[in-house]
Fold this protein.
Amino acid sequence: MLNRRILRIKAFKAIYSYAENPGMTLKDTQALLELSSESTRDLYLFMLSIVAPLTAEASSRIEAARSKFNPTEEELNPNLKFVQNRIAPLLSQDPDFTKLIAKKKMSWEQYDVLLRNLYETIRGRKYFNDYLESGESSLEEDARLWARIFEREFEDNAELAEILEDLSIYWNDDLAYVLGWCCRTVRSLGEGERWELPPLYQSDLKTSEGLTSDKAFVTSLVTKAYANFENYYQAVAERTPKWDKDRLCTTDLCLIVCGLAEAEAFPAMPTKVIINEYVEISKYYSTPESRSFVNGVLDKIINKH
């Protein structure tokens, strides 16, 4: 499930935690890495489990309208296409999925306000009304609708962001990546495939034969960065004489440390690829000046300028 980019981010965060808490042992740092990695898959499960509650919200709204004192003709004879979508029962009746959700105690029950607001937003979307009025009724069309919902309705939802932040400190940066996996899942359901829990690492997917172990990659990266943190810091300090320890941004330092660790642990990896990866990560986690700083220092040390 996790690709090399997100694994580099998780390695960087683990090393950042060590830099901020020098009392952390290697075992502590590796445990943090593993917890952070598993949390991404947990977020995937949590987000995918919204399918049935959101469908149920639509159903309850329809029933409430029918029960009004003086319902309109449309309320008495509503369009049930979304309520009867085929994706929701495929998940809610899947024994493996439901067992895992129950084991992890995941539930949207207490977030009824979010579900109401979310459904209200969705029912006003053109793509949703086009779906209701298409005249088609198929598993594939239901899957396309859910993929559109996952693509459009969650990433910039402030109410959802607050909920996720309260539930886990590890979820705040992983939502966009996880939503991509939710889209991938509903599309596979739309093609008639049964739900399966994705392996934690991308290299363990059935479609990834020949890829080297991502688990070995990220474990080696964190181990090398942890063991050589001080040496790498000295190398950075030597090449940045105008920067003292108090002025060197910890985020930038940890990005550079991870880049140096990767270059040393995986000498066959093109140095340009390594440098570009950590420069890209710096755009999201550091200052506007960090891109050129991380790029320059990594280039100087790795390429021995």
Notes: The chain has a mean pLDDT of 93.
